[in-house]
Amino acid sequence: MNVTQILAAKGGTLFTVKPDTSLAEALHTMAEKDIGSLVVMEHGELVGVLSFREVIQAIVHNGGTVGSMSVRAVMDDHPLTCTPDTAIDEVRRMMLVHHARYLPVMTQRTLMGVISFYDVAKAVVDAQDFENRMLKAYIRDWPTSPTPGDAAIKEAPAP
After folding, report:
1. N or C: which end of the chain has fewer CB within 10 A?
2. Among 13, 23, 24, 72, which residue's Cα sits nearest to residue 47?
3. Are 46 and 104 within 8 A, CB to CB?
4. CB contact set of 25 (below 8 Å; sequence gap of 6+)
5. How far apart are CA 106 and CA 81, in angstroms?
6. Could you read off the pLDDT of 20-70 as tens digits, one per residue?
């Protein structure tokens, strides 16, 4: 499984903000859309990511208020990124090692989307659920004819 499959499952909605946007306006967008991050774009290029982590640090640093801060002053201006072809196991490792909750997905300099730790966890759980269903179906369809000397094998009722 790779990042392309996660992006396909989650849909194409992407929320962006400009770096000179006020932090208060960015927070309003995040709250209204119920999202944990915004991609910061300038002149059509990724310049940063604003997540709740940066916002909380900025508010604490500013005495508990947003004040007149801009997104540029708060954003992560060197976000960790991945490509659509990055394997899910590599993404999991990257996110854990770097404590990243959101990864912009880039092809060259083009932003393809953003995946979150939640998106990755959901994809892994969905893949494991599918594999479990296939294994259970395989076991249920296992030949039941007894071998010489064995007692007859009884099938367990389907769940």
Report:
1. C
2. 72
3. yes
4. 17
5. 7
6. 999 999 999 999 999 999 999 999 999 999 999 999 999 999 999 998 999
